Amino acid sequence: MEETHLQEKFSKAPKTEKGSRQLRERMMALNDGIIAIIITIMILEVPVPSGDVASYIRFIKAVAIFLVSFFIVANFWYELSRLYSLVQVATKKMMIVNFIFLAALSMMPIITKWLMNYHNRLAVINYGVIYMILDLLEMVLFYLLIRDFIECSSWMKNHLYKVTRLRMIVLLIVSAILILLSYYFPRVMIYAYLALPIIDFVFPDRITHLLERDSFKEMKEDV
């Protein structure tokens, strides 16, 4: 019931806009399909051990790298699902950003394979760059959501803009630090990226929390 209210609250488009609503559903289905393919490709890149100890050690390391990438991709899928659950329709700008996001996310199998085969600083740095790009694109989607769909007071909207900008700045700073550390400690930093999706799960997104809180507050006032 609360999710239904959120969708009605955050969608400015009338119910007659079946095209936009269908595009949203197809876009979510496309996201699910591409992300499933990405995860499948990544697991297929894990080398099968030949039987000797050295190959088994390489296998264990490859599985560990796969798990890091898996949880990162899974977390992005979770965040996108939360975002699109707040709207009933999709705009053209959202679709364009979503396609760019999927294009960047499709690089994960290549970067993951690179790390499995050559665990060097250049591979880890590029891994961090891809992660930063994905996070920034996710924030752009949040910005479009706030701008085009949120119906709230001007104070609340300005506050959401402020939180979004602040998170972008923090994201750039943290990403720059991680990339810099990856240059000096590549073998350690690849596993440090595993902490990022865990933090997102443990500490839910502040912006989405504000949106839901504002919606539920107004829902109670309406009752």
UniProtKB/TrEMBL annotation:
Keywords: Ion channel, Ion transport, Membrane, Potassium, Potassium channel, Potassium transport, Transmembrane, Transmembrane helix, Transport. It comes from the Bacteria. The chain crosses the membrane at residues 27-44, 56-78, 99-116, 122-146, 166-185. It is a multi-pass membrane protein. It is found in: Membrane. One of its GO terms (cellular component) is membrane. InterPro entries: TMEM175-like (IPR010617). It catalyses: K(+)(in) = K(+)(out). Residues 1-20 are annotated as: Disordered. Its main location: membrane. One of its GO terms (molecular function) is proton channel activity. Belongs to the TMEM175 family. This is Integral membrane protein. It comes from Ligilactobacillus ceti DSM 22408.
